[in-house]
User: Fold this.
Amino acid sequence: MSEIKSTYLDAIDLQLLTLLQADASRSNQDLAAAVGISAPTCLRRVKRLWALGVIEKQVAIIAPQALAAHQGPGVQALVEVTLERQHAEALEAFELLACAHPSVQQCWRVSPGPDFVLVLACRDMPDYLRVSQELFTQPANVRNAKAFFATKRAKFGTQWELG
Assistant:
């Protein structure tokens, strides 16, 4: 019974997760006040959410337009990847290759349609060419890669809507 209770997320846990998704830099005292609990209780709850693996990591989300002013606009591509062979080992091998590549921001195994959808961030088109040769050539078992180049980011989010 205690194992079930330790993994149960109550309304306060969900409120904390919602607040942390919006701004993970909020102080423990601020979070506690926002959900109506003491600071020590809040800290214990947040540590528990980390221990349960519900919170995976804390990151800084970069604004592409602001970065572009300093480094140029860059190229972001969404790429559908279909493998030549789709047996379990081939799927796993490509997934490992893609996930290890620093230009791959996201790697999704999908169905139906292509086997994978990747989100790539490259410095420029020559960099995209280099990345595509590293990821989509014959040794990688890729039959087809179809790239869609982002022209505008209308929305970007990382938040889950919680009950």
